[in-house]
Structures are given as C-alpha cells and as structure tokens.
Amino acid sequence: MTDVAHLRTVIAGLLGFAAAEEEMLLTAGSRDGFPDFPDGPSRWGAVASLAHVTEFKAQQCERIRAVRSGHVPAVFAEIDHASPAVYAVYASRSADDVVRDSRMTTGELIDGARALADEDLLDPSRHPWLHGRTLWLQIVVRGFWHPTGHIADYYLGHGQPDRAVALQSHALATARYLGAPEQAAGMAAYGLACAQAAVGLGDAAVHTLVCAIGLNPDLRVNADRDPDLASLRDSGRLAEILRWA
C-alpha cells in the first residue's frame, strides 16, 4: 500500500525543486538576456516559458479545488507551442508578475496535496473526469516534470547545454533522494535522457531512457514521438529501445 504521508512529502520536495529552478531562471534570464539567441515562438524566453508553466500549475490547482468541492472542472485546451499569438500572450507578462504567480500556484498545489483525502490522491475511479489518471501523478507532472522540461529547453535553446543536462541530473537525483514512486522517478529519468540526447550524449541517453521506461512503462508513448529524442530515432537506437525495454 502506498504510504500517503510519504507521497505528500515527495510532492512537496519535487515541486519545491522545480519552483527554485523557476526563480533562478527568471532572475538570470530576464536580467541578462542572450542576444545571440533571440527569443520568439521557436525559442521561448524565460518569462514566456514560466508564464506557460505557471498557467498549467494553475489549471491543476483548479482540478484540486474541483475534487474538494465536488464539481467537474473545465476541460483545458491544448497549447500550440509554435503559435506566435500564443507566445506573444505569455511573453507580454512581466517577470515580477510571473514570479508572484509561480510562488502562489506552487504553494497552492502543495497545500492542495496535503488537504486532499488519501483516496482522492490515489484512486482515479472516484472522479470519472480524471479518465483513470491518478491525481498525485498529475500534480507531479504539472508541478515538477513539465516545469523542469521547459527550463531545460530554455537552456538548450540559449547556448547552455551543460546546464540543461545538469538541471535534469539534479532533478533525477532529487527524485531518488526523496524516494519518489517509480512513475515519478521514471519521469525525472526521462527528462535527463531527453537532455542527454539533445546534446549528443547518445550512449548516456540510451542508458537513461531504458532506466526511465523500466520505471514508468507509460513513457514509451512519449518516447516514440518526442522531438528531443530525434537523434536516437534517426540512428535506429530508439526503435531498438522500444522493442526491448
């Protein structure tokens, strides 16, 4: 049986890690800029990236409120990351506003995970609109996996590949340190594999991806279509991993 008290601690730790990385990115990225790597729809800047991340966290907060109040939340639309109009909306926010909202939504997610009944965190069948997805893992996805992925993408797109790999390495180390469930640890490993593949560390990426899928087999679907794994796909190594992992 899942130790729910421990699970709440894991959620707090993972979300706290991601929130600290958001703060650092907004402090450095919004101050220094990278003139050789202009921001735009094809290379999201720090403010736009974290405005988007914060919106996704806010949507998860709405889902938690729905569980606690017994209503059905709105169905949130998919985001077209390549859309200039979508990017412009996010980029128009100020760094101060994004920092404020990020802190608020992270705190609300952690508080929500603490306040939810154990059964609501663990049993998706209690709420049909969850479509079989466990609520605790949704919180981890939107409060940890999604933010760290976008932050790593920022570093990759702004000439800091080593920082992208280091970030995802620390994310995985944090998940292990916290004793995160295999599904969450697998997501952290998957993020590292994507960063390793993107910077040309093919052998390391293969090893890490095999580990990630072993921990969380649902990641096979992501891997099969993920552009970050293009180098493994083009070399045929991804097909081999998906065939045998």
What radius of gyration results from the CA coordinates?
18 Å
Report the mean per-residue pLDDT as an integer. 94
CATH architecture of the largest domain: Up-down Bundle
What is the general shape? globular
CATH class of the largest domain: Mainly Alpha
CATH homologous superfamily (4th level) name of the largest domain: dinb family like domain
Largest sheet: none
Total E-strand runs: 0
State the end-to-end CA separation. 26 Å
Percent strand equals under 5%
CATH fold node name of the largest domain: Four Helix Bundle (Hemerythrin (Met), subunit A)
Number of domains: 2
Report the total helices: 12
Structural class: mainly alpha
Helix % is over 70%
Low-confidence stretches: none
Secondary structure blueprint with pairings:
Blueprint: H1 4-32, H2 46-69, H3 84-91, H4 95-115, H5 118-122, H6 135-157, H7 161-178, H8 182-198, H9 202-215, H10 219-225, H11 230-235, H12 237-244
Helix pairs in contact: 1-4, 1-6, 1-7, 2-3, 2-4, 2-6, 6-7, 6-8, 7-8, 8-9
Overview of the molecule:
It is built from 12 helices and no strands. The chain has about 240 residues and is mainly alpha-helical. The relative contact order is 0.12.
Q: Keywords, please?
A:
mainly alpha; 0% strand
Give a nutshell description of this structure:
By secondary structure, this protein is mainly α.
